[in-house]
Structure prediction request, 155 residues.
Amino acid sequence: MRILVAIGAIALCVAGAALAREEPQANPELEYERQPTGPDYARNFPPGYNAPGSAGLVVLCCRPNAERGLSCDVAFEAPRNVGFSQATLNIVRRFRLTPESYAAYQAGPRLPIRRTIHWIMNPKPEGWDDYAAQVRTATAEICEPPPASPTPSPN
Prediction:
């Protein structure tokens, strides 16, 4: 009976190991030699939505390109369909990684880079910080690749 219990315990350990997956490493901390400026944001603020107190935010999933810029996809936009996605894609062209950060990214796990761009026409809307924190929490894993399917062990 002890032998059967030992075999069962070993089988559970092997099955557990087969289903376990290593947590992905994080990207290195990235530094930029160039970023969008205030005038870049002002020029690209969505027309027709630039009254005082207007605000929006866009979450991007990005990867560095060969020129050390960012190639991004919009993962979340609020409010939708008023132009914040396009405005963000316009200004993201201004980001450029330092050569050291680009090299560190290439040597690391190369996970998508999550960037949140806030668009605020002063004064900041009341409750904006709380809303932005909720979006940050809700979209924390939006750029992460789906987990790998466990490889079934042969029986």
